[in-house]
Fold:
Amino acid sequence: MDDIELTILINQKMDLELIREIIINIKVHEPVFIIEYEHFYQIKIKSESSLWELDNGILHFFQDYEFTNNLSGGGKEIRLEISRYQCPWSTDNWGRRLENPINQKIYLVKKSQNLPARFRPKVQVLFEKQEQNYFINIVSGIIPQTNEKGFLLKDSFSALTNPNDVKVFTDKLYKTAGEAFQEGLSKLSKIVEADLEKYEAEKQKAKKELEKTPRKIIRKFISACNKNDFSTILESLSGDFKFRTNIINKEGISIDGIKEFDQYLKTESQELCAKGFKIRSNWRFTDSSIEIGVKYPPLNNNREVLQNEPLIYRQMYFVIKEERITLIRLY
Structure:
């Protein structure tokens, strides 16, 4: 088995002497190199063993400290550092490649004080882009019969309240403010669910109101197409109107302007008028466009409906600005 390179970086002379004694006590058989630099000391050992007992020995003497491999919190003094490294190509005693060669670095730092987390009463909730603020109000409380002190949760979540205002939930006295806060979050979640339902209902109402005019314009346009009502068709278009087609097995059409479109509607190859369009139920709205599906029966050369033939399905894409249609794509 390949050796493990163990390196200890020590900042204080007194710690160096202590680590030296620990190494002697755990009976390390390999040579131990002790090197003194200008601002720190280094101990290097190359061993077949990981020497985990060294870590335990250090913690025994530094009982107010702990090992960590995560310094992301910052602000902690590093008493010493231990690195263990094993070559990525290391093998076991049978010559097989090790799946997880050791590559570890840990730091001896002061133990974290488990202070209760502080919190603010305001809780922000996002309903999509809309921000709603709620408040978890907590006050000190006491049980008169036992003089037990603790914290009570107030029955108000919509605003930050005066400690003497608003009734409290009297179902429980909480030992800590944090415990009361967590219970407040649980109760708040039910209120948020109800507010979400109101938000969705208002959003749907606003959506219907926003879509009302475009739906009316498109239905009027389709009805005019079915009736060959050219004047109504042209009245619904903007001055910079464009018409495009992309129908399978047919040459695409690109028309710019109302005059050219009027001429197109009067040709035998036109794809819009006297078709008997029926708008399908699925309307698709985006920020700047509306897409609908239409279906209609196939016609013969005499404009008569072909019986027992499958319906034809098309998609129509509209852009509407200032209550005028500026673009139609038929495909």
Summary: Residues 240 and 257 are 6 Å apart (CA to CA). The chain has three domains: 4-110, 122-201, 227-330.
